Amino acid sequence: MNIEDKYKVHKSIEIDKLSTKPDLNLSMTKIFRKVEKLSRSLGKFQDVMYAHNRYSVLICIQGMDTAGKDSLIREVFKAFNARGVVVQSFKRPTSYELEHDYLWRHYVSLPERGKFTVFNRSHYENVLISRVHSQVVLNECIPGIEDEKDLTDDFWERRYEEINNFEKHIANNGVIVLKFFLHLSKDEQKKRILRRLEKEKHNWKFEPSDIREREYWDDYQKYYEEAINKTSTKECPWYIIPADDKAYCRFVFAKILEEVFSKYTDVKIPELSEDIKDNLEVYKRKLMEE
Fold it and tell me: Which of 95, 92, 101 is CA-nearest to residue 145?
């Protein structure tokens, strides 16, 4: 079994039964070298994909606070042409964004053909943090949604259906959609938050909400499990990666991308037209005669 199949969600999952720890025997030195090599390989694929001009890539990365999303993005995409990858971070909706439906700000951030876009947190926040903190949905001013009691099971089922339809639509139009949940343990999160508090150079990363949100840990796990089970499809799959070891998590993430893109054998540098081919020597001579 390859890495992609190993971590892809093929059937209904129970998050608390999935390991958060590495399960491949690789040294740290090998992991760093492999990630660097994979980053260069992925960057070359993006260059060819840009010339091919048929596909784009949307990568959604979700995970609890301190799961390592930022550092993963930094390390895996560092060999890319800077114009070939865009990172979008979705925080609390602005007043302007709230004047549109909840998917609008995600739709307008989709990648152009030939490019990668990484959603650092994504449209899935609308079925995650919105489940834990219902005021987020009430702020959307949806007709008929006046109170928390209006957020019924049917409401959330409709939202899952809308998300699936959104992803199916963009996949049908050339966007390769890949979704990753960085599976972190509560104990490891505690260690990482303490590190932010104890090391002065990391203090800036700490927010009091990091502590408050831990109180909702079980709720978040429940809603992550439900969201993944409701929205992992053949066209737009979820991958669950153990995240207690950051380096290992980066390697698995990058390796999955490489294995997925290897299936797109139609992505090639386009050939020159016969007219241009036949006149290459003419163009060269004109330049040499300047």
Answer: 101
Sign of CA dihedral 105, 108, 109, 110: positive
pLDDT tens digits, 226-284: 999 999 999 999 999 999 999 999 999 999 999 999 999 999 999 888 888 888 888 89
Residue whose pair of structure tokens reads 């990648």 in the numeric block: 111
pLDDT for 209 equals 83
Buried/exposed code over 220-236 (b: 16+ C-beta within 10 A; e: otherwise): bbebbbbbbbbbbeeeb
CB atoms within 10 A of CB 261: 20
Q: What is the pTM of this model?
A: 0.94
Per the CB < 8 A criterion, the answer to whether 1 and 216 are in contact is no
Find where tokens 């739709």 sit: 107
The burial class, CB within 10 Å (0-12 / 13-18 / 19+), for 32 is: middle
Give CA–CA dist 246/250, Å, rounded: 6
- Residue keyed to tokens 């997925």: 260
Which pLDDT value is given to residue 210? 83
The low-confidence residues of the chain, meaning pLDDT below 50, are none
Q: Contact at 8 Å (CB) between 133 and 139? A: no
CB 281 within 8 A of CB 26: no
